[in-house]
Specification:
This protein is an all-alpha fold and 309 residues long. Helix content is 74%, strand content 0%. Helix 4 crosses helix 12. The chain is flat. The relative contact order is 0.14.
Length: 309
């Protein structure tokens, strides 16, 4: 690894740290600025009880002191504190429990989206303006236009309620099949269109025409040159896509009752659970930043001609 690459990676890490700090700061102060609090429930508590609860969770201190203490706990111990609504549980434990399911859901959905999208995109490019190309473009447009929770609801009605083939509850292994498919459809459609447009551009390049003129086998031209060089935009999309699938499954997890981090995040917002909101927001932002960094570095691996600056 040369010095330029190392400097680029260090620069991106510094930007990632700055981004996470901005996310923490904005989320922390916005939550404190919203009227109300985590202890305002349907059954009103006494003023003394509310003061005792605020003292227990450190909410009685000045906001800046809370902020500094929170940053110190994250940096030194990666400690998000205890959950306010889930009594007796630490926020980090809740996040790790949710991530076990959300990560499994996201990884499988990303693999399906990537493999299917690249294959369909390559087929569409090689059969440009043919019937199969038009069919693929119509389907991908529909999947991009239709929100994932609509697709999820339709699949739930058809395959769980009407046909009874798959369980509607995502708490079981079989119950994850429908959420995985619902999450993978939109990214798969985007990858298909990216692969098709990029591959069409590559197939028109001079070196592809030269290879054909020299009598290089079509299979080698397609897989050794065209497909490889057309994957750069796909790699650009895949890093954020994986983070989006893991972090953007909030609604899908609600539709299929999947016990993942998305469900915990939604519950924390409705319950005004400050520590859990902060913890899940930081982890989700960290995932997005890290995956963007990984995708940038992968550019250099796939195409050495790219200069990292």
């Amino acid at each position: 690894m040369n010095s330029k690459t190392m400097m680029y990676i260090l620069k991106r890490i510094a930007m990632a740290v700055l981004t996470i700090w901005i996310v923490i700061t904005v989320t922390f102060f916005v939550m404190r600025a919203i009227p109300g609090g985590p202890f305002l429930a349907e059954k009103a508590v006494s003023e003394a009880t509310q003061r005792a609860l605020e003292a227990k969770y450190g909410l009685d201190k000045p906001v800046m002191e809370q902020y500094v203490t929170y940053l110190k706990d994250i940096v030194t111990r990666f400690d998000f504190g205890p959950s306010i609504k889930l009594r007796g549980r630490m926020v980090l434990d809740v996040i790790l429990d949710g991530m076990k399911t959300s990560a499994k859901l996201g990884v499988f959905a990303a693999i399906i989206a990537l493999f299917t999208g690249v294959v369909l995109g390559a087929v569409a490019a090689l059969r440009r303006n043919k019937f199969i190309d038009k069919c693929i473009m119509v389907l991908t447009t529909a999947f991009i236009s239709m929100p994932s929770f609509i697709m999820g609801s339709l699949m739930l009605i058809v395959f769980s309620v009407k046909l009874g083939w798959l369980p509607a509850n995502g708490a079981t292994t079989e119950g994850l099949i429908l959420p995985v498919i619902a999450l993978s459809l939109s990214p798969m459609a985007n990858i298909t269109r990216l692969t098709r447009s990029s591959m069409l551009d590559v197939l028109g390049q001079d070196y592809i025409r030269t290879a054909r003129a020299k009598g290089v086998a079509p299979v080698k031209i397609i897989f050794g040159h065209a497909l490889k060089n057309s994957l750069i935009p796909v790699i650009t999309y895949c890093g954020p896509m994986l983070a989006y699938i893991v972090t953007g499954s909030l609604v899908i997890e609600q539709v299929f009752a999947v016990p993942g981090i998305g469900r915990a995040f939604v519950s924390s917002i409705t319950g005004r659970d400050y520590p859990l909101i902060m913890g899940t927001t930081i982890v989700l932002a960290l995932l997005i930043v890290v995956m963007n960094l990984v995708s940038d570095i992968m550019y250099k691996i796939v195409d050495p001609r790219i200069t990292l600056e």
